[in-house]
Design goal:
Layout lengths: L1 H29 L15 E5 L8 E6 L2 E8 L10 E5 L13 E5 L12 E2 L11 E2 L17 E5 L2 E6 L12 E8 L2 E7 L5 E5 L1
Antiparallel strand pairs: 1-12, 2-3, 3-11, 4-5, 6-7, 8-9, 9-10, 10-11
């Protein structure tokens, strides 16, 4: 009888350990990692880099038609510094960035436009028919009035991609899309695209 109790206790203990390990692995798989294998921290500056070499550099700001607000662009050259940015999830208490979580993305830079550098998805452009990512967005206050300001990081093969598919407004009709690059007028503009830009994150 005692032997049976010992065996049962060992089995329960093993099951608890395995369950704990599985939960830890699941949590790790949902956590976004930077190029050094460290967990991506919220409210911390990072550069966003393309995974594929030779197709542009880091993300930065660029004026379109010489008018405000600034748009999000990919630098044409890998050697360009780019501009660091921060990830701000809907849950302000979250310490690390997880996959599929709504968040604001904000450049850590002031501009001549004297506007917020938070990202937002613009309306359909009348000339190109595309939707570009621009600044002058709003941080926080998830809901109907800020639905265009929320982005997510998702897995893309063995890498990551940036996605616009906000879940902050349950009754809003949103056209989701991956963020890719359009090469126009000598610049690489970030916008909703069928071809996502595979990215990685480097701590500034």
């Amino acid at each position: 009888m005692r032997k049976s109790l010992v065996v049962s206790a060992l089995l329960l203990s093993s099951m608890a350990i395995l369950s704990s390990m599985a939960a830890a692995m699941a949590a790790t798989n949902k956590t976004v990692l930077d190029v050094d294998g460290n967990k991506l921290q919220t409210k911390t500056n990072y550069y966003v880099l393309p995974v594929i070499r030779g197709r542009g550099g880091r993300l930065a700001l660029g004026l379109r038609n010489k008018t405000c607000p600034f748009f999000v662009v990919q630098e044409n050259f890998e050697v360009s510094n780019g501009i660091p940015l921060k990830f701000l999830p809907t849950d302000s208490n979250m310490k690390v960035v997880h996959l599929s979580v709504d968040m604001n993305i904000v450049f850590s830079s002031a501009t001549i436009c004297v506007q917020s550098t938070a990202w937002r998805v613009g309306d359909i452009d009348g000339l190109t028919g595309k939707r570009y990512v621009k600044t002058a967005g709003v941080t926080g206050n998830p809901g109907l009035g800020t639905v265009s300001n929320w982005f997510k990081i998702e897995r893309y093969r063995d890498d990551y991609k940036l996605v616009f598919c906000p879940g902050v407004c349950m009754f809003c009709k949103v056209v989701c899309g991956d963020l890719g690059v359009f090469f126009e007028d000598g610049k690489r503009w970030l916008g909703l695209s069928d071809v996502p830009l595979a990215v990685m994150f480097k701590k500034a």
